[in-house]
Amino acid sequence: MPKPCCTKNSQKSKEIDSITEFIHILDEPNRLRILCLLKQGERCVCDIFGSLSLSQNLVSHHLKVLRDAQLIDYKKEGTRVIYFRNENVIAKFSELLNNIVTL
User: Fold this and answer.
1) CA 20 – CA 93 distance, rounded (Å)
2) Domain-by-domain residue ranges, the chain?
3) CATH 1.10.10.10 for the 11-101 domain, yes or no
């Protein structure tokens, strides 16, 4: 009898682990709000915390978590740091999630 595709040793199981980590990161509403803002275009920290009415420290923390997960990236323009979504990584997670849900 073949092993189910979601057993511990399957590739699908590794994908499930990745999706679980992804969902855990997005379980924080402010991180979703940041991704939503960045979907509209690049933003600096001052634009993000101003739009969300959060402290700069809290926004910076969430940006770091999103950067560590490679969901966003940044570039420097003079003294400003501009954040933007990493659409390739977001698309990868979206595809993984779709593959798991449609087993």
Assistant:
1) 10
2) 11-101
3) yes
How long, in residues, is the chain?
Answer: 103
47-100: per-residue pLDDT in tens?
Answer: 999 999 899 999 999 999 999 999 999 999 999 999 999 999 999 888 887 877
Tens digits of per-residue pLDDT, 15-56?
788 888 888 998 999 999 999 999 999 999 999 999 998 999
Q: What phi, psi does 81 have (nearest 5°)? A: -110, 125
Closest CA to 84 of 31, 40, 30: 40
Question: Which of these, 66, 46, 65, 64, lies nearest to 56 by C-alpha position?
Answer: 46
Closest Cα to residue 83, out of 101, 65, 102?
Answer: 65
Max CA-CA distance within the chain? 61
CB 29 within 8 A of CB 35: no
